[in-house]
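User: I'll paste a sequence; please echo it back and then give the predicted structure.

Assistant: Echoing your sequence first, then the prediction.
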Amino acid sequence: MADSRDVAKALLSIQAVFLRPQDPFTWASGIKSPIYCDNRLTLSHPEVRTLIDEAIAAKVQELYPQAQRLFGTSTAGIAHAAIAADRLGLPMGYVRGSAKDHGRQNQIEGRVEAGDKVVVIEDLISTGGSVLDCVEPLRAAGAEVLGIVSIFTYGMAKGVERLAQAQVENTSLSNLDTLVQVAVEEGYIQPADQERLLKFRDNPSDESWMA
């Protein structure tokens, strides 16, 4: 199974995670960020897609062998949930950010029964809000959410705290600490940038990391 360094190298190689400490991105919230993550790009690269989805399936099998269904987050987690579920021979579905305003007004797409043991598949954990928007409807439907398996996490304090408060466990294939170390070794960023990136992670609203 791929380890966190393998996944970090793969994400950097296809620019699914892009580091730009000298020319930060601006998030919708207005926060300046030295990192941009778009794991949807993994779907366009078969070797990386296979590495990641085999790793997701292996994590589910290792940590949650009792899992009965996988549910992806909408939209970026859907494809990875489907591929991993296929490898494991499990049913899958996905959860919308909010219920539809037409038809059956579903928020959960796919069958879920009270008592089902499910694992949520997410592409990115930042502040934890989007994945909890998936966990909560599943719990409301009576499912037992065993945990989350995600591709990448920033490890932000707000996200860690939210998941802890919701009493749900997340396991990520890779994380920012590993990725910035690999990025320095591979020449994507300078050694001095490593501390700046981690300082941003520890307090995104504090722009002193740009100094």
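The chain has seven helices and ten strands. Residues 3 and 173 are 7 Å apart (CA to CA).
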